Amino acid sequence: MKHAALCKQLGYQFVQSQLLQRALTHRSFSASHNERLEFLGDSVLNCVIAKYLYIAYADLPEGELSRLRSNLVNQQTLAILAQQLNLGEQLLLGDGERKSAGFRRPSILADGLEALFGAVLLDADFTAAEKVILGLYVPFIARTDLKTLGKDAKTLLQEHLQGCKLALPQYNVLEIKGEAHAQMFVVSCEIPQLGLSTQGEGASRRIAEQIAAERAYQRIKENP
Fold it and tell me: Left, alpha or beta for 178 (phi > 0: left; psi -120 to 50: alpha)?
């Protein structure tokens, strides 16, 4: 079955295969695209995460619950979860988007994942969509420091180094690979005082810096 691996990762088998096909179709590929499903998926996602946080974190006030929800349903988190599913490889994109590495673009990945949630809702019901969403989100939440959720890796690394009275990291572009329309940047994150150097690779310098910073931050946390 086409997309069998994706369905297995989602823990859901579609009855109406056309809904899955629509969810994976970007507007650059066809007039029958996933934007309406994305709208629906965004709504069910917010509801599911709000319900989960309300039950799981009974002592948190409304303001903290709202902060957590907004950072869990944002583009960055959705793109991370979509990458875990290798969703970009299965999206149907027009030639222009494909050549410009649209399958790596966080906004396209996030929209595609929300469209999948909407497709499950229509193919079955709210309970099925909730199960799929929590199947992805609960493990993510379990390995996430909720106190730092919403802060990007460069900010976390900078705050940690400042707290230790250490100099800020140095970011250097080591290599730019690929054609002009689909470049990949390789960036290093250097912290000389700690003898630490990490690398990140991404479709933009900013993304590569974030990946390098995340790796540096994780290594510091693992070896304080």
Answer: left
Give the architecture-level CATH label for domain 153-222: 2-Layer Sandwich (3.30)
DSSP-based three-state secondary structure for 167 = coil
- The phi, psi pair for 173, rounded to 5°, reads -80, 120
Identify the active-site residue in 38, 114, 123, 209: 114
pTM for the complete prediction?
A: 0.73
Tens of pLDDT, residue by residue over 133-162, are 999 999 999 888 777 777 788 998 999 999
Of 38, 42, 123, 130, the catalytic one is 42
Query: Is position 114 annotated as part of the catalytic site?
Result: yes
Domain positions in the chain: 4-142, 153-222
